[in-house]
Structure prediction request, 509 residues.
Amino acid sequence: MLDDGGELALIDVREELIFSRNHLLWARNVPLSRLELRFARLVPRKTTRIVLCDDNDGLAQRAGHVLARAGYRNFSFLDGGVAGWEKAGFVTFSGVHVPSKAFGEFVEHDSGTPSISAAELDAMMKSGAKMVVLDSRPFDEYARVSIPSGINVPGAELVLRARDLAPSPDTTIVVNCAGRTRSIIGAQSLINAGLPNRVVALRNGTMGWHLAGLTCASGQSARAGEASRGSLIWAKQAAETVARKYGVARTDGATVEAWRKDEQRTTYVFDVRDPTEYKAGHYPGAISAPGGQLVQATDIYAGVLGARIVLSDDREVRACMTASWLKQMGWKEVYVLAETGGETAEATAAILGSLPDEAAVAPSKILEIDNVSVVDLSLSADYRRGHIPGAWFAIRGRLDKAMPKIPPRRAIILTSEDGVLAGLAVEEARALTDAAPVCWLKGGNAAWVAHGFPLSTAEKWADEPLDVWLKPYEQTGDTEAAMNAYLSWEIDLLERIKRDGTAHFLSAR
Prediction:
């Protein structure tokens, strides 16, 4: 299936942390816990060929029941789960966003992307060398931790804006991210575009800077300004040249609408501009996917391998550069759409399933019920930031493990970020307890806050936080060891994908 040229959605329904330990290269992680919330956006066409995989523990079958009720009908289960794949002699991978991360390593090797170490960059800074550091991550990541003097220019914006930030050809441009992938892709984008400056990637990004004993900055806010007319003209010409090299085609709105009606093919429309531009107005139905992030984590946007991808960008530069990378990554049909339209509401995917209104309660009701247990099904990171006082953390797909740990009460009220997941879980929770009626909080934690009620950070764990893979700098304990292990993992991916043999990355040579 992976090699027959047809569309395929390979979906791993385990929790993210479990998935990150061992999974198939091309699997998209859509945990059973949040299947109804995420699946329709990733796999919008209900006749898509789907393979579900798990730990051979029944999760895939449970997911199949949900999909069948929602009208999906062309799905099967991987025999033996991930262990069955290994037993058959195939390669598995750890980590997340592996195809994109492996592609970054491939690009560096294939194109010979130049890089410098943190010590070399530090020496350049101290010597007063003519240089600029461009941080290719989204603004929130940049603001949290960055290289001192770095300017935020998210990946797809680099070709559009770098010329204004380094107008003199003798200015060295250093591109960084947190680790390796976006540094490599960002630097190589500028090189591919023909920028006359010396361009290098900061080897191992902010993690490399920290590991070298240097101090990262926090709270920086320097962002690239609007592209000048001259830069825009140059960037369009440069991006067009790159697009032609990789066979990127253009399309129009009428064609896109015809494609969307095609019941035999999946078509994604991604707006690759800055999210603020997207919010101001975008092509109808387009999903915000800033170009640098789309290349960095393609698996969280495009769930169907072999699908058609359309990139929307009124200036075309970001779309052309992003499309060139997707083509090299192995996506055969990638198109640039210059139209952005006028919608301002964010595109939302349909929820699979319905909510039991008869079991919904208002936030004030929690305060009226004596001896109530609140069970929070939010992501563990959101739970840690704040939750209804006394609420227990649980993972929706693992309620059978969590419910026995929660003391019996007169009532059980499920909640989540906006209440939707809680409503979907009511019947499952009812099947696991006969000690108390089960309700759900309409509007969830957001409604609780909107009513002016306080949040708590005192934690009560009915399950482990298996729902999230933590980045090295988010982990507790030996952060430096976690960073070194992560960077070694990235570098090793190139050899692992060679052994796997299912990646068809295109050489730039």
